[in-house]
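Lab notebook, page 48
Experiment: co-folding of the full assembly
Goal: obtain a model of how the components sit together before planning crosslinking
Operator: M.T.
Materials (sequences as entered):
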Amino acid sequence: MRSMRMSHLFGETLRAAPAEVEVAGHRLLLRAGYIRPLAAGIFSYLPLGVRVMRRIEAVIREEMEAIGGQEITMPVVHPAELWQRTGRWYDIDEELVRFADRTGRNMVLAMTHEEVVADLARSEVRSYRQLPLLLYQIQTKFRDDPRPRAGLIRVREFTMKDSYSLDADVAGLELQYRNHYRAYVRIFQRVGLPGVIAVAADPGMMGGHVAHEFMFLTEVGEDTLALCDRCGYAANIQVAGSRKPVPSAEQALPLEKVATPGTDTIEALASFLGVPKSRTAKVVFFTAAVPAPAGAAGENAKPREVLVMALVRGDMDANEAKLGRAIRARRLTPALAEAIRAVGAQPGYASPIVVARGAVLVVADDLVAASPNLIGGANEVGFHYRNINAGRDFQPDVVADIADVSAGAPCPRCEGPLRLARGVEVGNIFQLGTRFAEALGAKYLDAQGQSHPVVMGSYGIGVGRLLACIVEANHDERGIRLPITVAPYDVHLVRLSAQVPDLDAKADAIYEALRAAGIQVLYDDRDLSAGVKFADADLIGLPLRVTVSARSLQHGGCELKRRDRDEVRFVPPDEAPSGVCEAIRQLRDEAAARLSPTPYPAPDAAG
RNA sequence: CGGGGAGUAGCGCAGCUUGGUUAGCGCGCAGCGUUCGGGACGCUGAGGCCGGGGGUUCAAAUCCCCCCUCCCCGACCA
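Observation: model returned without errors.
Model output:
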């Protein structure tokens, strides 16, 4: 229905939301009657919510079609076999919902669709002449997240636009990747989120090497980003680098054991010895599942559990995401004290020197590996070593950047100070390569008749999460303030109750005239006090409001007001449709003017 | 999975510490009347397995045990 009488609208506005709802946008979506909770991280969309989603989806569809996308719909339930063949059946933990159908066949609820796309490509794509392809869908996903929170920002069931590029080679993939990058920027600007930025991201276990996340910056976000205001460097903290300090050029001094009673923290150790924390080495233990050593076992060998000793400089923290990547860990959790003692290490005084080789996987941050004469544990309560030198006193199994970037650290590109910020990931783009095509046999023949795996990319936008961010970015103390591009209706027609005998008839006539002009109207025809109706209109947040009342008739007809402005103007009833159309056009023009033509540089491959 | 908070009418909440009238308040809902440009008012009325189960007691919303659910923080987030 293009228009609606509010007296029949399903879903009421709420005067109050539950006290435990803390995020502003979440409160407003509940109060305004857009969504209702069913279970943790699972929501129903009421008519207003569905209409905004459709509008957002329409923008996404336009931009996907503009870069050659073809819409398909893939199933929500997949046979486990597909996921077993790519290995993700084994790699993914409880986040993937599994069940058996009536015959006992294992099935999964789709949390993403790389497997099914690769399977479609296997059956449909045979020749390079069919490539490139871009397939997309807007469809339900389920991820059994251990901790849903903040309303639609982090849910278990959600609507996602996911697209998949199929190419003959990496050059084709890179072109489609850049196309998506630009399309995403346009999408976020068009729906009212001009502040979304692209940051370098961890391709994770998707098997690729280049990835970007699109981040809406907000305090309620749960990702941490490292940003450089000088050169524009932007990266998720999970991959962010920094220019590390150059270690002092000292001669390696002889190893020396010193008594350091009661210093089981870096803080205590540094102050006891009167040295800066940067002269110490910190040990952090993790339990990890890592791939079995190559050779003896094949690809599907069971991962083995190992204790990981991570070494970072005392003034830094270990970054679990970086550490996990450095050792290709499938799971990484802080180690329990018993596990640490089990390999003969002394918690609080652990040392890479004394611990038996092979018992633990020693991973040293590159700065630790390069720093001379550090102070570290002696594996004995109350004792540390001075002048530890990696390479001389111990051999790390892995040397990599595993340290967290801290606020103010020098940017890896320009050495400007990095700033840390919080953000919500509203979209992501991955260069996948051939992992999925190879696992599922999606191959094509080139012009020479040679067979190659299809090169894939995958690209996602969480539509509900996008809505949550739009509201987060577009509201005031009275309620939601939706951009014209995504509002569920264009105009909120408010009819006040009054003694004027034919007011209802006049308002009805204006409603019909607006509809006839092709305007989408939400008509508040309820018999309620003015305060309630205005409060509801502000809460629901349509961009325009038309009021018909005894007073407005005295002023010449009906009153026209923008949600984002205080001033009003009066137009005669028969000019209401043209006046509203003009206001809509103006809002659309303003929105279009805010689109920046070259908003972001093309992503460079290095991120 | 660890820590914290909460579950009482459709919604928002009090009552619980110290067990004892018929379990309350506001909003909403139904009826009647008054009001009518920023969450009006009067009268009348409907609406409760006090999250579930077990226990203590003459007596349990209230005390004890177990379980479930939701929210927040952490772990996690392909």
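Interpretation: Residues 295-300, 602-607 of chain A have pLDDT under 50 and may be disordered.
Next step: discuss with group before ordering constructs.
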